[in-house]
Design goal:
This protein has one domain. It contains five helices and six strands. The two termini are about 25 Å apart. Strands 1, 2, 3, 4, 5 and 6 form a six-stranded mixed β-sheet that branches. Helix 1 packs across helix 4. A hairpin with a 2-residue loop joins strand 5 and strand 6. It is of the alpha+beta class. Bound molecules: iron/sulfur cluster (SF4).
Length: about 190
């Protein structure tokens, strides 16, 4: 049984069992936050801006999001790589994102079952999808605040720099979909 999340080897095993291509444990102080990325959320290409409690503007300002992460010292980074016929087609990449999020939850559950101290939270590769339809769309309060997650973009985390930091390939284009999620832990 692992009694600490500093047991990196076990974390990598769990990531592989969950179906991830790769995983890394990093220091949160090495993450690069780019508040200007918020403009990309506001452009709303994904259609979730203002429709999901985990997304801007409801999730918080870039500064608040960064502050939330920086309450913790470490993060596990999970990477999935999935061949697709056209990476620019959201109808193909949406189900891949969904699967990546499920894999992240599965890995977190296994870490908890291993006895690791789960004092942190996940950062996903897409909007919170814990409910079939986000309660925000029905003007109702979020019924599962403890399960709510936001994506890397909402945190304004630079995914390209994250991939470099983890020595992971960041292929995006053509026929390969690479997604990342994090679990931040070790509260200061
Ligand atoms: S837990 Fe449900 S209601 Fe809350 S943000 Fe996630 S999808 Fe929306």
């Amino acid at each position: 049984m692992c009694d600490t999340m500093t047991d990196k080897n076990r974390i990598y095993e769990i990531a592989a069992e969950a179906g991830f291509e790769d995983a890394a444990v990093i220091n949160t102080e090495d993450l690069q936050f780019v508040p200007e990325f918020r403009v990309l959320c506001e452009e709303n290409d994904c259609g979730n801006y203002g429709k999901n409690y985990g997304c801007p503007p409801a999730c918080g300002t870039p500064q608040e999001m960064q502050g939330r992460v920086m309450q913790y010292r470490k993060a596990v980074v999970f990477q999935s790589k999935t061949p697709v016929t056209d990476v620019m087609d959201p109808s193909l990449t949406k189900p891949i994102k969904k699967r990546h999020i499920q894999q992240t939850r599965r890995a977190m559950q296994q870490m908890a079952e291993d006895g690791m101290k789960m004092d942190g939270f996940a950062i996903m590769c897409g909007p919170c999808n814990f409910c079939a339809v986000c309660a925000m769309e029905e003007n109702k309060p979020c019924p599962h605040e403890d399960m709510r997650t936001s994506c890397l973009s909402a945190y304004c985390i630079n995914a390209t720099e994250l991939a470099k930091l983890c020595n992971m390939e960041m292929e995006w284009g053509g026929t390969m979909a690479c997604f990342f999620s994090l679990y931040v832990f070790d509260r200061k």
